[in-house]
Amino acid sequence: MSEMRVVHREGDAFAVLVRDHVIHVDQPYAAGGMDAGPTPVELFVASLAACAAHYARRYLVRRHLPADGLEVTVGFTMSAGAPARVSRVEVRLRPPVRLSDEDTGGLLAAVTGCTVHNSILDPPRVDVRLENEVTAA
């Protein structure tokens, strides 16, 4: 199993350690944070956008189509009710060239087959475990 670690920094700010990378997350000023990074929800949506971009670029390259300048924009809506969750995500692709009907369908199929999209459609089981043991220093 791959593993990441999240370390509290201060207030609502955390550092997410991913291999040799550090991603800073926080809450916006309006929510009591220091806005030192995106929120966890923004990272969730950003991971879908980045995955879509990756699959779109790979599709374009495989088809020998220009990939430089590919843009992916995503918008998301939070649910008005409980539980708190993202209720809608819209992914918009802007390839650098006009695509044929065949490549339009192929690009959409590639993007909807991205790993993050598949993980949302068929969600993983999430086990939450409390490790209540305190180790002496």
TrEMBL record:
Highest rank taxon of the organism: Bacteria
Family matches, as Gene3D superfamilies: 3.30.300.20
Pfam families, per the entry: OsmC
Name of this chain's protein: OsmC family protein
Organism: Actinomadura chibensis
